[in-house]
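Q: Is it fine to ask for two folds in a single conversation?
A: Yes, each is treated on its own. Send the first.
Q: Here.
A: Result:
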Amino acid sequence: MQASPALRLVRDALEARGIEAVFEKESAELIGMEGVERSWEGAQLVISLGGDGTLLDTVHRMGSCEVPVAGVNIGTLGFLTACTAGDVDEFAAVLARGEQEVVERVVLQVSMEDRSGVEHRFMALNEVVLMRGGTGRLISLEARVNGELLNHYRADGLIVATPTGSTAYSLAAGGPLIGEQAGVFVITPICPHSLSDRSLVLEDNSLIEVVADSVHSEGILFTVDGRDVLRLGEGSVVRIEKGSPPLQLVRLPGRSFYETLRGKLGWSGG
C-alpha cells in the first residue's frame, strides 16, 4: 500500500473511535492536511507507517523521548511493527480499549570521535557497525569489555547489536537470534580473517570499547542503525553501553516475538 492511502486509513480508523490523530508536516502534506513539527511532543502514542527502516528513522528523530511507538507495516520485513495495513481497524479498536501491549526494547548509547576531531553521541536501537571503506582491505580493530582486552579482530568489520538488532545486520553476518527481553548484547565480526572469531553474547551492563589500528583508521567507516555514515578518527575510541530510557514498543495483544520469527523467517508453523 502507498503512503497516502495508508495515512488516510489510519486517520479514519482512529477518528472513528474518538482518537485524535496529529500528523507531522511531511506526512500531513501527502493527504492535504496541516501538520506540526515534532508531532510526538505531547502525544500518548507515535505511529510509524512503513517498514522497520521507517520505524528506526522515527525513533531516531524522537531522540530520548519516552512516548511509546507503534509501527504499521506497509514495507517489507516488519520485525518491529505492530500490525499490517490490513490490521489497522483492529489496532484502532485495541487502542480505544487501552488493551495494547508495550514491550521495552533496550537501546545503545554510543560515543565516537570522527576524523575532524568532533565527538558525536548517538542512540542505537539495532546496532553499531565499524566497517572497511573503499580500500578493499581488511581492517584491524581492538575490542575491550569493561577495560579488559577481548580480541584483536582482522575483518571486514564489527557489529555490536542489541537483542532487537540480532534480527538485522548481525543475523546476516552469522550472529545468533536473541530473545527480545534478554539482557545481553552481541558482538559479531563481519567476514573475519580467522575462522575462530565468532559472535560473542555478553551482559548488557558491559562497557564495550572498540579502537581502530591507527595505520588504517582513516579507511574505517562508522554507522549507527544504518544511518549517519562517518569516518573514524585516528586513535578514536568508540564507546558502547546500555542507554536510557529504553524504547517503548507497542504491539497487538496476543502477538509474540516468537510468532514474528516464525512468520518472517518461514519457520515451521509460520
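Q: Second one now.
A: Result:
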Amino acid sequence: MTKRLRCNIRGIVQGVGFRPFIHRLARRFKLSGWVRNDSGGVILEVQGEDGALHLFITAIRGEAPPLAVITGLTHEEIPPCNGDEFRILTSKGGGGAPEISPDWDVCPDCLRELFDPADRRYRYPFITCTNCGPRYSIITGTPYDRHLTTMAPYIMCPTCQGEYDDPANRRFHAQPNGCTLCGPTLTLTDASGEQVAGDPLAQAIRLLAAGKILAVKGTGGYHLAVDAANDDAVRELRKRKRRDEKPFALMAPELTEIRKFALPDIMEERLISSPERPIVLVRRRNDHNLSPAVAPANGYFGVMLPGTPLQHLLLRGNFPALVMTSGNLSDEPIAFRDEEARQVLSATADFFLAHDRSIQTRLDDSVIRVFQGNPLFLRRARGYAPRALPLPAGVRSVLAVGGELKGSICLTRGNQAFLSQHIGDLKNPETLASLEQTTEQLKRILEIEPELVAHDLHPDYLPTRWARESTGLPTVGVQHHHAHLASCMAENGLEGEVMGIIFDGTGFGPDGTIWGGEFLVGGYERFRRAGHIRQVPLPGGDAAVREPYRMALSWLRATFGPAAFHLPLPFIEALSPEEKKLFDRMICRGINSPLTSSCGRLFDGVAALLGVRTAVSYEGQAAIELEGIAEGGNKRPPLSFQIARDANDTLVLDFTPAFRELTEAFLAGDTPADLARAFHDTVAHGAAELCGAIRQDTGLRRVILSGGVFQNKLLAEGVHDLLSAQDFNVFTHRLVPPNDGGLALGQALIAGRSNICA
C-alpha cells in the first residue's frame, strides 16, 4: 500500500550532510518525494510502500551523519502525489528556528585524500566534505546554504560542481566544497605584509623549523605557533607576548607523539581524538623533550590534535609538537580578521600564514580536563558552540550576558539554551565589542529575539552596564552564586530545591561583601545563604588577587592577632616595618579591605604561606600551583577547622585553626607538598561537615558543586567522595564550565522563571 509522509526533523541537521543522507536513504528504499532545509531544520515528504517507509524512518535515527544531532522527528500522513523521483529542493525560510553545527575536524575520508598523492586534493589545505570542516565559523545567515557562508565568493569549478550535484558523492551539497582551482588559497607574508617567495606551506614549515614565530590562521582565529622543542623560540614567544608563566597549548600530529611527552588516560585520549578537537589537560611526562618554558611550574600540558587540514599539513612528519597559543594581546579576544590580526600581532609574529576565506565568527579553542572519568569544561568554544543544551522545562526567550571573567552569553528558546563560545575577560572595550558581535550573530542565525536580559548584580561589570544601557529590554539582575547554582541544576535537569557548594574567587554579595565560599539552599526562583567560609579582609581589594601574600597576611592576622607580623615567614620578613604597620591598619580598620568569604582567596593565602606563590602573573596561578604540589604530597590527617552559627543563624566554616597548624608545621620543617595535600583534604572535610549540618536543618540530600574553584581536581574529587560516602546525591558540571563561563546559563534560567514582564 502506497503512503506519503511529511516529516519535520529538528536539531543539528543543517551543514552536516543531512539532505544528501536523506536522498541516499530514499533511493535505497525506492521512495519518491523531496527534502529541503527550512529555518527550523529539515522538512521532507516521502512516498512509497508502507514497509519501506517504516524502514526509512527507523534509518533516519539509526544511521544519521556523524555530525548530526536529532532533537525532534515528527511525521504525519498526507495524500499521495504523482512522481517517482526524490529531489533536494531549494531551502526555504519559515517553520521555526534552526540549530547550527559547530566546526569539526577533518574526517577520516578527507584526511586519507589529503595525504594521497593520487588524489586531486592532495595536500589541499581546505579539503572538506559534508562530514567535516567549518560550519559555525563561516555561517552568515540561515538557512545554511553556500550563499549564506563566507564561501559565497568562490565559484566551484566544473569538477567540484559535479561532486556538489551528485547525490552519490560525499560532497553532495557540501557548502564549503572547493579545490586548488576554485577554493581558498594560502598566503605567507612577513610582519610588514611582504609576500614570501615560494610555496607558502613549505616555507612556513621551514621558518618554524628555524625557530621563527608564525601567526597561523585557523578555523575561528589566529594562533601563534613555534616549534615546542625549540627552547629559544618558546622563550622568545613568551617575551614578545608578555606572558611570563601561563602555560602554552600544544598541538601534536597524532596520539603517538603526545604519548612521548604526556601521559593521557583512556578518556583523555578519547577527548583529544574527538572531532571537536579540544585542548585537554594531561599530566606531563618527566622525561619529555619539549622546552621547559612551555608550561613552567605546572604538572600538566594542554594538548590537542590538528583540527584543520592546514594544521595536519604543518605538523605531520615535521614536528613532534607546536606551541599553538591564541593569537591575541593580553586580556583581548583572539584575532580573527586578517587586517586586525596584522595590527595586533605584527610585533609578536615574524610571519603570517593566512588564507583568503573569511572567518565570520571568532572562536577560541575549547579546554577540558577529566574529572571522575568524565569531561569537565574549563572553556567551552570551538567544536561545541553553539550546540543546544536541553533545559528541564521551557522558559521565555532570554539573553544572559554572564559576568566579567570568562565571558559567554546565553540565549534561550523554549526548552533549549544556546551557550556561546568563550569570549574572554570582559574588562575592556575590545572584549565588550566581541560580546556585542557574538550576541547579534547568534540572535540572527538562531532567529531568537529575547524578551529579557539577565546580568550579574555587580554594577561595575561591563556586561552589566551594557545590558542596562544598550539593549533597550527589561533587565533582571541575578546574584553571582545563585547563577552558578542554577547553571549546574539546569545541565543536570534538576527541579525543586537543592543544596549548593559554590566556591570561586569573587562574586558580589547582596550584603555588600565579596562572596566566594558559599553554601546555598534554593532553586531557580529563590535562594538563601545557609553557610559560608569565614569572612576576612581583602587587603588592597584587587591588589590581593595579584599578590596572594596579602591574603596570607589577612588570614594570619585573623589567626594570630598582631603577632602575625612577627612570624619568621619569608614573605613577612621581606616587609619593612612601615609596610607591616600599614597592612595591620588596613586589615583591622577595613581600609580598602572589603570583607570576603572567597574560597579562591583562601587557596591563594595558603599558597603564599607555604612559599608556593606570593605574586601571580595569570588568574588562578597560585591555586593551580598549590594543587600541583599537593598531588605529590603524602596523605595525612586533615587539619582543624570550626563550624559555628552567627547572629543570623548562618553556618560559618572557620579555617583559622588550620592556618595555625599549617604555620606551625611549616616552620617546623614539614614539606609544602604534604601540607598542601592536608589543606585540600581539610577544605573537603569542612565542606562535607557543613553540608551535613544543612541537611539536619533542611532534609535536603541533593548537592551541586559549582564555581571556578571546582576546576581543582583534587578538591572536587575530595568533596565529591566525602559527600557520596555520606549518602548525598552529588551533581557536577559536564556540559558547561563550573567557572564563570557557565554563569550565563544560570542567569538565563533564573530570569526566564522570574515574574519580570517584558
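Q: Anything structural to flag on that second result?
A: Two points. The first helix runs from residue 18 to 28. The mean pLDDT is 95.
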